[in-house]
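FAQ

Q: What does a record look like?
A: Structure on top, sequence underneath. For example:
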């Protein structure tokens, strides 16, 4: 009998090598390579006694005009928004988030809301006992919800149990790292087991029509733990974000085959669980100091939702040879680029100053349209000149100092007008777009030097104070 060969698989990225080594050459991580049986890997030869392939029917693309099946709405509007209008029958979703951020709380609330509509909902925990899940549900006031519970980690037993009786509308697996299959010769949590368990559960979702949510652990750098191939296997990847010292929670769509990506849902952690935030812009701007220099309101977009947040900057003379650069909620390399552009093309000397930049409210901004708001906050802090309290900013800054247009400018301006803003500094190209509200006076900017001259033409804060005292 031929000796079965073994392969060595990195538990961080899934790379396969023929021998063990201390560091993975693919991702650079140390001590992440574990030996696994070659019979359980992708591309393994057919096992003895395996069944032959069956002939299946092929569908025609011309039949695609059939009405799409209805979405499974939970009634939690922020969750339904992020999923693209509710769960799709037969889909698989991967939900990731840091420990204690509220993943289980959100899923229990979603299960209870769906079970209240006379749908079969199953919650399977691989980390907690059934009594622990019940305690959390009672704490949320959902102790009488008809959600079916189980504490199990065997994938074969889970699929066999779910296939019995009425087809479930929603199945939650918490978490995929704890699941294991008897046909895979590896420990639970390894790449082979995670990949095999996910494949079995996704196959059950496609064949039964149930929506399956897989909960994934998160590494120290915020990435969903396990092989990246699992993210490609599922239909949607959702990330639950938030800071431990804040009550704000953000549910972000990283991947979605049935809806827009980068869509966000905003929740607030309360004593009764997660509460929806219907107007997140007003929440982010609720505690702003309108008369303080270094604060600029950015009109941004998160998916299809316009969102207004405040950029706060503090520029102070530095006594160090290398001034500090601290950024919270934005890209640090983007800040370095804006500082270089301001020094080169606007004559704003920031090289000998410490710079601290923060996005208020705990939101992380990713789009380049925030360049203009960050630059305005930096100039305002350096010159000690407050910006107009009813003004918003958006626009991308090029290396040449030119201000480029960004997408969905009318939607940004409409959100600003709804919250009472009356002035907007925008790229010159955005002025030609239609459907902009008439209640906002738009000031087009072509170059960063124009922004510096516009802010510099106003009196500094000290002069404003002396005028009030007089």
């Amino acid at each position: 009998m031929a000796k079965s060969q073994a392969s060595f698989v990195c538990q961080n990225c899934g790379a396969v090598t023929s021998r063990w080594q201390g560091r993975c050459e693919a991702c650079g991580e140390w001590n992440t390579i574990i030996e696994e049986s070659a019979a359980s890997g992708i591309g393994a030869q057919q096992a003895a006694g395996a069944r032959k392939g069956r002939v299946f029917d092929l569908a025609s693309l011309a039949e695609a005009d059939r009405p799409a099946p209805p979405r499974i709405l939970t009634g939690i509007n922020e969750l339904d928004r992020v999923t693209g209008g509710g769960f799709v029958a037969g889909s698989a979703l991967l939900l990731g988030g840091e420990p204690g951020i509220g993943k289980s709380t959100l899923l229990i609330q979603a299960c209870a809301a769906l079970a209240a509509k006379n749908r079969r909902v199953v919650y399977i925990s691989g980390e907690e006992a059934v009594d622990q899940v019940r305690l959390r549900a009672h704490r949320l006031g959902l102790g009488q919800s008809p959600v079916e519970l189980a504490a199990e980690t065997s994938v074969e037993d889970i699929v066999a149990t779910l296939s019995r009786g009425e087809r479930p509308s929603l199945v939650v697996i918490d978490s995929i790292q704890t699941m294991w299959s008897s046909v895979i010769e590896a420990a639970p949590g390894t790449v082979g087991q995670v990949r095999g368990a996910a494949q079995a559960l996704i196959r059950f979702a496609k064949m039964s029509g149930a929506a399956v949510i897989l909960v994934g652990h998160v590494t120290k750098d915020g990435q969903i733990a396990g092989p990246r191939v699992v993210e490609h296997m599922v239909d949607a990847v959702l990330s639950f974000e938030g800071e431990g010292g804040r009550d704000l929670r953000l549910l972000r769509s990283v991947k979605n085959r049935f809806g827009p990506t980068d869509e966000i849902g905003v929740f607030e952690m309360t004593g009764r669980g997660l509460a929806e935030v219907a107007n997140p812009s007003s929440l982010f701007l609720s505690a702003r100091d309108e008369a303080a220099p270094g604060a600029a309101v950015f009109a941004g977009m998160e998916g299809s939702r316009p969102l207004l947040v405040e950029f706060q900057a503090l520029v102070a003379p530095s006594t160090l040879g290398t001034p500090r650069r601290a950024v919270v909620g934005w890209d640090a390399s983007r800040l370095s680029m804006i500082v270089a552009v301001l020094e080169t093309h606007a004559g704003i000397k920031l090289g000998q100053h410490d710079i601290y930049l923060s996005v208020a409210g705990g939101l992380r901004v990713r789009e380049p349209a925030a360049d203009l708001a960050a630059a305005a906050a930096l100039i305002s802090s350096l010159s000690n000149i407050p910006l107009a309290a009813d003004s918003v900013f958006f626009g991308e800054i090029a290396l040449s100092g030119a201000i480029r247009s960004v997408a969905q400018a009318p939607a940004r301006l409409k959100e600003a007008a709804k919250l009472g803003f009356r002035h907007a500094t925008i790229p010159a190209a955005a002025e030609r777009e239609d459907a902009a509200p008439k209640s906002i006076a738009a000031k087009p900017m072509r170059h960063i030097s124009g922004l510096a001259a516009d802010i510099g033409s106003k009196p500094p804060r000290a002069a404003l104070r002396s005028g009030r005292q007089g």
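Q: Is there anything notable about this one?
A: Residues 40-44, 463-470 have pLDDT under 50 and may be disordered.
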